[in-house]
Structures are given as C-alpha cells and as structure tokens.
C-alpha cells in the first residue's frame, strides 16, 4: 500500500504553537529535500526524517540570556553545558547587588522533566556551585539574582573546593581586569574518564536527588578570553580544568592549565573556532596565573611577573590522573 | 575605560565562512537585543553573549540526513544521540543491498576531534553496533552503506546481545510491518545510574580507544511509532530500554518496555511532543511485543494475540536495577 504509506511519511516539520513549550522552541530543521538514490534511480521508499512530524527529538540546549550570563543547559545531566560571563574594571566597581538579597531558584524556563530541583541538592552533601560567580554580578541586584538560577549551578564539593580553591580561582579571574579592560569567562562541568586498576578507562559520577536527577561533575573548566580593548584586537587565552574535589591552597594554579582544545575534546564544545590564530595570545605568559590566598594586597603587586618557561605542551585529551 | 570596553563587546554573531567547518554550521543564535536593567535604568555594563564573536560553543548535534536514516551526534561521547529510521512492508521487500558489500567507515562530516574512529573499536571487546540495522536498509546498496558510518554505531556487547537478543529485537521491529503500513523507529544509547552499595546513585561507563574516545553505553533504547497509514491517523507507541549486556533469549521483551517519558528523562530528548494524545495508541496492547528466536514461521502467527493485562505503569525515571 505505497500510497497510504506515502500519506503519513511527510517531511513536514511542524513547530509547536506558542505556549505549549516552557523552554525555547526546539531547533526544528528545515524540511529535507526529497532524496534520490542516484541519477535516474527511483525516489527512496522511506523517509527517515518524517519522524520530525512528532517533534524534533533534540537535544535542545535551553539557551538562556540573562543580564549577568548567557548559558546552555544539558537536559540529560541537568547541569549547564557552559555559562558565559563578561567582566570589566567598571562592572566590578559597581556595588549595587548583595547576595544576601538573592535566593536560589529553579529555572522555570526548562521543562519540568529536565530541570534541576532545589530538592535534588538538599542533603546531597554538595554545594549549589555557581558557574558564573555571584560576586561577578554586583553591578545590579537583578544581575546578581540571575546568577542564582539552578541552571547556573552544578553540585560542587564545598569545603576545600567551592568555598576555597575554586573561590580563589574566581578571584584570580576578577583580578585579570587590572590588566585587561574586558574579560570573558566560560565556565562549565566535565565528566572525565579515569583509568581503573583493570586498565580500562571509565567515566563515573554520582547523580543526586531522589530519584537521581542532577549529575555531579568530576571536573570543572574555565576558558578565559582576556581582551585588549581594541576591536579585532588581541585576545589572551587560557583554559583550566580543576577536579571537583578538595584542592590544597599551595597547589599552583598553573598545574591546572590545559590547552583549550583539551576542554573542547572533553566537553564536545568549541570555544574559539572563529578567533584567528594571529589574534591569540597566551594569558599565562602575560600574567602570573596563580591564586592569592593570603596577603592579598602584597601578592597583587607580583601578578605581572611572567611565569617560568613551560616545558612541552600537555596532551589534548583530558583524563583523570 | 568604558568606551574601549564597549568596542570589543559587540553582540555580533559571526558565522564561519563556507569551507572552514567540516560539520554542519553551529546554530549561532541571532544577536541578542541590548538589555536594560529595568525601566529608566542605564544599559548593563557588560555583554555576556559577546563571547559568540569567537564562535558559538555548542553543543552542535551534527544532524545527518542519509537515505536510510536521520541522526544527531553526541560530540562529547562520540556516539549518536538518536538515529531515526523508517520501514514499510514494501521497503523491506526490496533486496538490492548486501551487507557483504558495505564497509564500516568513520563519519567524515564530524570534526576530527569529536569523531568516533575505527581504531577506537579495534580490540575494544565491543561490536560496532548498528543503531539503524543494516537489514532495514536492503532497499538499495547506498542506503545500506549509509548505515555503516560510525555515527550510526555504538559499542555493543557482541555475543548474547548485539548478535542475539538485540538482533531478535530488531527482527521484532521489522515484523511490525506485517500489521502497520509504516513504522518509524528511533534508536540510541543511554547512560543510566546504578545504586551502589553505599546507597549513592552513580553513572559509570567504559570509554574505549587510546586515548579514550568513545563511550560504552550502559543501555539502549528504541522508541517505536507504528502508523496506521492515514494522514493524521493513529500512532501506536512503545519504548524499550535494554541493558548493553548478555540477555537470555527466554527473557520476555515486554519486561523491557518503559514509558516513553522514561526514555525522555534519561536521554534529555523528547520523542512525541507534537503527537496529540488522541492519536496515541499502545503498541503492546495491539500486538504481542515479544521476540522470536526459533520456529519463526510458527510463532509469527501468534503475534496478533493481545498480551495479558499489565499492572501499574512503571516509574518514569530510569535507573539500573
């Protein structure tokens, strides 16, 4: 019954009417042209993309554009894929927001079944770890509030990481505005493989919530774009990957530096595909990539000292040591 | 230096010129409107989405439209997210393709750093498991060939799964064309959490390749749309989730049936968001959802027998037992 079959195998890609979706509309592809099996051959008897009549399966990234951040959400892991922010010397000087007036909240723009919930974090043992830090969005209360959506959070180890080394690392990023007029930072989670005693590589991560809902990343990355302030000017790049674990403050930050490509391979994302090589500079050859734990003011003066020359570049495939 | 800063924080979202990308173009969002912090307040001092000037981070799904399948690729795990196919009584009758003439090949449309490689599978202990089976695309050699791209593969346990129970399951799907004039099947991998002895849920999966590159799914799903052949007609749905492990042939297929929503929660995808409830039917109430291992012809006659009444529906959050 080919005629009957044809009738239901249309390539029509219908989008849902307004109001039926809570998240952004799925990126339904344009109808695909009818395919022929080769010159002079009959049209194929089937239409695989006709399934789009029932909706585009996705994945959908739930792109969010807020005052303080732009992000894409991972519906399978209920964490962001990445969260991008922008800080400048003047934005950090503005002190209109206070985190005591902000509250953590679920991101209602994400469909319920893919959303991270406040109850997932409750008694999980993990912090609701900001990807874009609240302290980077003090320029308005609304901007700060928008960092408190759970779509800007991942489960992070609290003591020794989120409240310590990671916070010092965020401080390092802010201090970059002393040397660059415009700094962009993209932050997000990773789920890296580790070599087991049997010699096999395995990714293993906890999932919090009852039922399990939000993945606990094994690592976090930041890709930093420090801009020189000129249109089409130089961009000083650095990428860091830190384990979601206690890190002692005496561990040099530069030990966590990796090639941008290593973060790309691990995350499936691309961070600077449109940035010409001629405009790229290496951030950690221009400033000292190090955290400041104590004697903040004193060590602030040393940040411009170039670091010692590095050896061969690390491998671009990230695994857990 | 606000004016300098402004100059480099444009929201321009440039797409790459033709030829600079091997995969489909990233879905660069339209420029975001300038945001104001509220009525009468000054424009925000930062522009988080300005990072798009360096390229949209993604993720990009590498949508592939081939004669025999349409698929989306997971660049982080180097497996498909989903692969959709369409079979009909007449498409399965055509016998122009022979798998002995097809060869496994890497999908060159996916950027090298995100691509599954033939060498990743070599000596991994896993089969290159077709998501859309070669046997469903015998209607032309080219259609069959297009099922042999690694973007249609996942690492699958061979004996006892890919070569046995999973193959019987694929046969079940083909047999549906005896009762429905048009059958659509969406197949893909899952990475499900399992409860460890410490009471915590963890996702754990192997990654094959040196360096590790391709994730080994813990489970596979199929979402089946059996169409009645009328435009806007009824669609009989069923979803199954099978572990990537040896399954004995005497295990009833129906034990692997799950609500479609459970696959959606686990995968982060949506399969029938545009299909009105009034058009939905339950496939396994219309046909016997069971595999046939032996005495194929004899058991073929029994497939229309409705199965015994089922109890309460299973939970919609998938975990490993």
Automatic annotation (TrEMBL), chains A, B:
It comes from Baudoinia panamericana (strain UAMH 10762). The lineage of its organism: Eukaryota, Fungi, Dikarya, Ascomycota, Pezizomycotina. Belongs to the DNA/RNA non-specific endonuclease family. Mg(2+) binds at residue 162. The keyword Transport does not apply. Residues 65-278 form the DNA/RNA non-specific endonuclease/pyrophosphatase/phosphodiesterase domain. Homodimer. It comes from the Eukaryota. It is found in: Mitochondrion inner membrane. This is Endonuclease. InterPro entries: DNA/RNA_endonuclease_AS, DNA/RNA_non-sp_Endonuclease_sf, Endo_G_ENPP1-like_dom, ENPP1-3/EXOG-like_nuc-like, His-Me_finger_sf, Non-specific_endonuclease.
């Amino acid at each position: 019954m080919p005629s009957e079959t044809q009738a239901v195998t249309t390539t029509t890609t219908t989008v849902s009417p307004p109001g039926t979706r809570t998240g952004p509309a799925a990126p339904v592809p344009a109808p695909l042209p009818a395919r022929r099996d080769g010159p002079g051959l009959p049209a194929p008897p089937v239409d695989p993309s006709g399934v789009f009549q029932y909706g585009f399966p996705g994945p959908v990234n739930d792109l969010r554009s807020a005052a303080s951040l732009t992000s894409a959400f991972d519906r399978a892991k209920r964490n962001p894929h990445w969260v991008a922010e922008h800080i400048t010397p003047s934005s950090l000087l503005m002190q209109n927001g206070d985190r005591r007036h902000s509250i953590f909240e679920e991101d209602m723009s994400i469909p319920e079944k893919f959303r991270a919930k406040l109850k997932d974090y409750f008694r999980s043992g993990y912090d609701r770890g900001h990807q874009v830090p609240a302290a980077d969005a003090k320029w308005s209360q609304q901007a700060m509030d928008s960092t408190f959506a759970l779509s800007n959070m991942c489960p992070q180890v609290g003591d020794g990481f989120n409240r310590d080394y990671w916070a010092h690392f965020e401080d390092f990023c802010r201090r970059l505005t002393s040397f660059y007029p415009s700094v962009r930072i993209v932050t997000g989670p990773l789920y890296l493989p580790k070599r087991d005693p049997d010699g096999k590589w395995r990714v293993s991560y906890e999932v919090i919530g009852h039922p399990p809902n939000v993945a606990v990343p094994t690592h976090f990355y930041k890709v930093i774009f420090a801009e020189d302030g000129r249109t089409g000017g130089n961009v000083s790049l650095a990428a860091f990957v830190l384990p979601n674990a206690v890190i002692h403050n005496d561990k040099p930050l530069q030990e966590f530096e990796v090639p941008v490509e290593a973060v790309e391979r691990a995350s499936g994302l691309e961070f600077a595909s449109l940035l010409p090589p001629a405009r790229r500079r290496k951030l950690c050859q221009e400033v000292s990539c190090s955290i400041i734990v104590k004697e903040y003011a004193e060590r602030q003066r040393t940040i411009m000292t170039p670091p010692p020359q590095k050896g061969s570049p690390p491998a671009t495939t990230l695994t857990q040591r």
